[in-house]
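Dear all,

This email documents one entry for the complex benchmark we are building for the journal club exercise. For each entry we list the sequence lines for every component of the assembly. Then comes the predicted three-dimensional structure of the complex as a token string, followed by one or two observations. Please use this as the template for your own entries, and keep the labels exactly as they appear.
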Amino acid sequence: MIETNKPINQLILYYLEGTITPEEWTELDLWLREDKDHKSYFEEIQTIWLATETSLQLTDQVIDKEWEKLEKRNFPKQLLHPRWRRMIWAAAIFILGVLFSWAANSYLRSGFHGEIQGCVVTTPLGAKSNVTLPDGTRVILNAGSTLKYPGNFGENTREVTLEGEAYFEVTKNKSKQFQVHTSDITVKAYGTKFNVKSYGEDKTIETTLIEGSVGVIKNKDFGRKHEELILSPQEQLVFYKASSQMDKLKNDSDKSMEQGENKTGKLELQAEPREQTNEKIMISKGIDPLLFTSWTQDRLILKSEPMQKMAISIERKYNIKIHFEDADIKDFRFTGTIENETLENLLAAISIASPVEYTVKDRDIWLRKKIVHDKSHSTQN
Amino acid sequence: MISKNRVQPVSNQAGPTEESGFLPKEPQDPLVTNLSVSRFDQHTENPDIECIDRIVCDDMQAFKQLFERYYHQLYFYARKHVRSQEACKDILQDVFSYLWEKRHHLEINQSVKAYLHRAVHYRCINYLKKENLDYLHLNHFHLRQSFMEGFQQDAHHQLQEKELFENIERIIGALPEQCRKIFRLSRENGLKHKEIASKLSISTKTVEVQIYRALKYLKQNLEEENNRHTIKKNNDRNK
């Protein structure tokens, strides 16, 4: 072993620290070659030197920093794990689907009042339906009518949308108002019986109250409490479409009504034709509710009913089409009850009670004025 | 999905198992290179195999697990041959990047641990060749030769890494205060001996003596620890 100025321990330390000089290195090198034990001793000290460094310097923070570096280097493009990306795709597609169906839904229902998904009951012409809503409210839906209500009906609100005619027996619930939306007006009720007639092709919307009380408001005034009109039992509100003002008018035709206590099948001709009043709301007091709810029992009770209106009721009830060859006929008025009559009997009764004759072809019926003194022009069927 | 690159455990090799810290008393045959040492304990699931299977399926979380599990020992391994700490960290970055990049085409015919060590080994050689470093960087003929000859599982170490890392804190804690303080400044804060001396207003000589004392103390204690384990293991075996 070559004599050294410095002890071998110091040389090893210098080596480990990295401050060893070439001369000192040569010396250490010679010592290492000298003996196998020297080498293993040196290696063990080096191991501890490095192991302490590794253990003490590579803290969790250092490892995290190195990991972040690795992440940045390897995943710059794929910021997310493929599985997450797949999930995000799936979620995006799902959300798109929901948005689309929502959009489609609101588009289809844009004519109505912000309803979300629910039930639609439609009655074809010549039929009627009984519907019981989730809150127990009973609805009888007349021919050619549609009733819609949202899936969450009864949760917070009780709202239905009606096109056509329906009779309601609303289950009492003070905290949840029952609302019937039609094209132009909304009927609000808590626990009542009433009838709403709102066919798209009709010029009027009729709300007839049988029991309790209801409020009626124009859709464009919705939310303005003072615009609401309150109906009492046996009152009827007629809304004339395209009307801009609300007028409360009393029905003064009580005298004609007194005559109207008629037997089945008897029709009474009202001589003077009356002009249609447009752009108005009329409230009739003291009406006979039966007139407006009789359809629920398959009866048609008429009181001073103009032919034009009666014809529409008949069209719906029997699923036919009535054509007027003479415009005058439209204003003839009828009073009476038609109960479970066949169409033939009904038409015969009309032709007896009024100067009208008719032609039937399949589901089409033509009406014209009877020319009493000239038989050559009449065509009886 | 089961990877076709599944790690094949080689079980009958006389190598240390990480779990036991068991050291073979038999000298290693230096000719046996590519020694495949299995970390696979026959009775337990190998977490590395599971990890690799998941990495093959693009599981980044599994990749992170593997990174955290092996970072210390791979750094330690690289550091034995490469003096620069930054270079060692760069080498590990390269090794792990490569592993992730090639995850779908991995061919690991040995334990994951051996695979990673081998990868670090060759990166170190490349680094040393490229940098054309002086004597401070593994100029020692014996070390260099055996190192350059190829990768060998680090069985020649008398001390096992896991044992080392686990026990170092505890043994340092048992050092006399002044000695501990100086040693920590050196190993934890990476200060040079001169810097420590000026910081503590003591001579460089004292610093060196204290550091050496600490190293010897650690060596002695770690060896004792190892022997206890070895005896215990041998006793368990003889039962």
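Observations: The radius of gyration of chain A is 45 Å. Chain A is about 30% helix and 25% strand.
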